Amino acid sequence: EVHLAESVGGLVQAGGSLKLSCAISGSTFANGIIGWFRQVPGQEREGVSCVNSHGGDTYYADSVKDRFTISSDSAKNTVYLQMNSLKPEDSAVYYCAADYSGERPGPGYVCRLGAKYYAMDAWGKGTLVTVSS
Questions:
Q1: Res 88: pLDDT
Q2: Rounded to an integer, what distance in angstroms lies between the CA atom of residue 127 and that of residue 98?
Q3: pLDDT over 90 at 74, yes or no
Q4: CA distance 88 to 43
């Protein structure tokens, strides 16, 4: 069974930076597909960024492209999300998630890498990021 734990988020001023980490235990990166998602209360959860930690492929939502960077450290079984130039609209609960079932389009939330879709099987509890204007 895969367990994921996000680092503590925090309060950041607009324009600032914050780095989230996701520690993964139970299976080395599962199938290697790790995603960051975020959710504002009352809104749908959205995919922010995904990485294939075995191959290096990445995905970024248009809203975070050129501002956020996802990376993985296999030695530490950890995936990171470096968030720069933060905006108030980035405020949300951020979740990391992992796939361990292989390529499939659902059900639930998916990571898209190229033409492939990976439904997320395991989730962290989430961490709150608040960006003040």
A1: 97
A2: 16
A3: no
A4: 15
Pick from 118, 31, 126, 26: nearest CA to 81: 126
Kindly tell me the burial class for residue 15, based on how many C-beta atoms sit within 10 Å of its own C-beta (0-12, 13-18, 19 or more): exposed
Is the confidence at residue 28, as pLDDT, over 70? no
State the burial class of residue 56 (Cβ atoms within 10 Å of its Cβ: 0-12, 13-18, 19+): exposed
Say how far apart CA 87 and CA 15 lie, in whole Å. 6
Cβ neighbours for 126, distance < 8 A, ≥ 6 positions apart: 6, 39, 93, 94, 95
Strand order in the sheet with 3-6: 3-6, 18-25, 78-83, 68-73
Burial (Cβ within 10 Å: 0-12, 13-18, ≥19) of residue 114:
exposed
Please tell me the distance from the alpha carbon of residue 111 to that of residue 36, in angstroms, as a whole number.
9
Count of residues making up the chain: 133
